[in-house]
Design brief:
single chain, 352 residues, alpha/beta, two-stranded antiparallel ribbon, 9 helices, 14 strands, disordered N terminus, disordered C terminus
């Protein structure tokens, strides 16, 4: 009888431990969701076992050429049709692709293949690193692009570079979605099809996108609250030379309250983006609240004027998931985002 009682007590204890473990697991899972954010209901994350058609596929590359990547945060990818161009999006300093799901979802809805790519964006900001050294900017940006030009400012290896990560990400996506058209963005010789790619980014990522557009003939470039690459009369030296992508295929947007506004607008001027929105108009950024430019107006530099927080918050809320929402839960800036995304030809549309 005594032994039976002990067995019953032991069984009760084991059940209690199991229930406690299950509750703890649920609490931790909830905390992970809180830490990393929720995917929009209309664009859920997908596992490695499923392809990224119509929904976002969340994955990590792990290691390249035997080198473990640092940082190694989730990349995001999705596509609708198999023949759409690619939007390559680069986050701001210390930000992750997961921080921009509303914008990436908007691009997906416009027919793009979408790839939010993690890359080396840790440490100090690019502007804080280079300040008034005009040659520093290109050195750091080239190093992060392909792993060359290592210096005291930036020592990214070729394996950890944007180019290397991009190639491996495309190879992975081609494996999990073989009919999705991903493979056409990297040739058999590992050449990247830049002419089918719109590079985009926020803050430091937007500056990197502008630099990529300078050294490669991309389909287009979108820069949000960027580039932050001027200080008074000084700006990144690479901006003084003609680039592979003309300014006519580059667009930039920022909010008037952005704390880095003067440095950003100085970069816009150096890039030749302060062109008239209409023939004979003023050569300065076009101003709006959240509305897209009217028909027949095609400014390449746009300043929004909405109350989206402090100057520091304004720098992020122009594009991050913290962007203000309307009464229907949609980003207030979505019409402007769509206008920017539609500046480049898609299979079902043409741009002016």
């Amino acid at each position: 009888m005594k032994h039976r009682l002990l067995l019953v007590v032991a069984a009760v204890v084991l059940v209690a431990i199991g229930l406690g473990t299950l509750v703890a697991a649920n609490v931790l899972a909830g905390q992970r969701v809180a830490d990393h954010g929720r995917e929009p209901a209309h664009a859920p994350s997908r596992s490695h076992a499923r392809g990224p058609q119509d929904e976002f596929h969340r994955f990590r590359l792990g290691a390249i050429d035997g080198e473990r990547l640092e940082p190694n945060r989730d990349d995001f990818a999705a596509r609708t049709a198999a023949d759409g161009p690619l939007l390559l999006f680069l986050p701001a300093t210390r930000a992750r692709p997961a921080d921009y799901q509303r914008f990436l979802t908007t691009a997906l809805g416009d027919g793009y293949h979408v790839l939010g790519l993690d890359y080396w964006n840790l440490g100090k900001t690019l502007s804080g690193t280079c300040e008034a050294d005009p040659h520093c900017y290109g050195t750091v940006q080239r190093n992060r692009f392909d792993g060359t030009r290592q210096s005291d400012y930036s020592a990214v290896s070729p394996a950890g570079s944007i180019v290397s990560r991009f190639r491996d990400a495309i190879a992975h996506l081609d494996d999990v979605d073989p009919t999705g058209g991903w493979g056409r963005f990297v040739g058999a010789d590992e050449d990247i099809a830049w002419s089918d790619i719109v590079v985009a980014g926020h803050s430091q990522g937007g500056g990197e996108a502008a630099y990529i557009a300078h050294i490669r003939p991309v389909l287009g470039a979108l820069m949000f609250a960027s580039p932050v690459e001027s200080l008074g009369p000084v700006h990144a030296a690479w901006m003084d030379r003609p680039g592979q992508t003309p300014a006519s295929r580059m667009y930039a947007v920022d909010d008037v309250r952005d704390e880095f506004g003067p440095r950003i607008r100085g970069s816009w001027t150096a890039l030749g983006l302060d062109v008239p929105a209409t023939p004979g108009g003023p050569a300065e950024p076009w101003r709006t609240d959240t509305a897209a430019p009217p028909e027949g107006w095609y400014p390449h530099a746009i300043l929004t004027d909405i109350s989206i927080g402090t100057p520091a918050q304004s720098h992020s809320r122009i594009i991050k998931d913290t962007t203000p929402l309307d009464a229907q839960g949609q980003p207030r800036l979505i019409a402007l985002w769509q206008w920017l995304l539609r500046r480049f030809p898609l299979p079902t549309q043409t741009s002016p």
